[in-house]
Design brief:
With about 325 residues, this protein is of the alpha/beta class. It folds into two domains: about 180 residues, Spore Coat Polysaccharide Biosynthesis Protein SpsA, Chain A (Alpha-Beta Complex); about 70 residues, no CATH class. The chain has eleven helices and 14 strands. The chain has a seven-stranded mixed β-sheet, with no helix packed on it. Strands 11-10-9-13-14 form a five-stranded antiparallel β-sheet, with no helix packed on it. The longest helix is centred in the last third of the chain and has 16 residues. It starts with 5 loop residues before the first strand and ends in a 10-residue tail after the last helix.
Length: about 325
């Protein structure tokens, strides 16, 4: 039996981020995951001709025209950031391109991929229809959805979806509205986080909150939906500011513990970076709240000597 197939769909318009080569290098390392990229930019040289990268050059206006035609709405926002609200519709909009895939996914580019198949194995994919890297909601940076008419059209059950999609501003149709459509009880999880876990400042409140979510989900969440926190998105705090992560040959590791991540999301980290820290090397990189830097030679050596799935911590 062949492995379930995965297509990740990412529209991107405007200049590529400065870490674009690192992003595409990590795409290339995930050889059994296909990426569908729609952009008005030229594809970086290292990704040209890659079998798992399907690139379509088009203008932002043409892309909005296509989305409007497929959804029967007038979707022409002034800012491309509004495309975040389009994420839950991508499986429907691009259904002809992805019809042979078992799963499609929406994702982001402000990240570097780890080994996706290590975390989403054939056995896990066989048991679930929707998979998120958060424990209380769908994740905008990566959510996998089984490619069926039922799931591809579920987004149309969002109340006032046309109004929300075509109005200015971002309404989090992916993380908030589609989550509530799939899992109405999620609203209670969010209230518990705001009024209990944040208010009373538990020791390691984020870990405690995710344990709470797992207990509630085990009872009330549809078993075909997997909401599991993967610790992909470091936040700015005194502990995280000192941490480092290693990207090497398609793997993302915590530099201290050796723990492997499905991907590292730059959401908060990139706000502290300076231009001087970006580096074009994609063979390996050290990533921290200081920025992205070349991988030191001693870490190259340590990783080359490591065996198995457990990787040594690098201080």
């Amino acid at each position: 039996m062949s492995s379930p197939t995965i297509a990740i769909i990412i529209p991107w318009f405007g200049p590529w981020p400065q870490w674009v080569d690192l992003f595409f290098h990590s795409c290339l390392c995930n050889r059994t995951v296909d990426y569908f990229i729609y952009s008005d930019q030229e594809l970086p040289a290292l990704a040209v001709g890659a079998e798992n990268i399907h690139f379509e050059a088009m203008s932002y206006t043409d892309y909005c025209d296509m989305a409007s035609l497929r959804l029967h709405v007038d979707f022409h926002p002034d800012r491309s950031y509004k495309l975040c609200d389009l994420k839950p519709f991508l499986g429907f909009i691009h259904q002809n391109a992805i019809q042979q895939y078992d799963f499609w996914a929406f994702g982001d580019m402000d990240l570097v991929w780890g080994d996706i198949r290590h975390f989403y194995t054939d056995e896990i994919l066989s048991r679930h229809d929707i998979l998120s890297t958060h424990s209380d909601r769908l994740s905008g940076h990566l959510t996998l959805i089984r490619n069926t008419e039922h799931y591809n059209t579920l987004v149309f059950k969002i109340h006032r979806w046309k109004e929300l999609l075509t109005s200015p501003g971002n309404h989090a149709l992916d993380e908030i509205y589609l989550t509530r459509t799939l899992y109405p009880l999620a609203k209670l999880l969010w209230k518990a986080h705001k009024h209990i876990f944040l208010r009373f400042r538990f020791n390691d409140d984020w870990k405690a909150y995710n344990q709470f979510c797992r207990r509630i989900n085990s009872v009330f969440l549809n078993k075909r939906i997997l909401l599991q926190e993967r610790s992909t998105t470091p936040w700015i705090d005194s502990d995280m500011l000192q941490k480092k992560w290693i990207y090497r040959n398609g793997h993302v590791l915590d530099a201290t513990t050796g723990e492997e991540l499905i991907y590292l999301h730059f959401l908060a980290m990139k706000t502290t970076w300076k231009r001087d820290y970006y580096h074009p090397s994609v063979d390996g990189a050290t990533i921290s709240f200081d920025g992205i830097a070349p991988l030191p030679e001693e870490i190259h050596t340590a990783n080359n000597q490591a065996s198995g799935r457990h990787h040594p911590g690098i201080n």
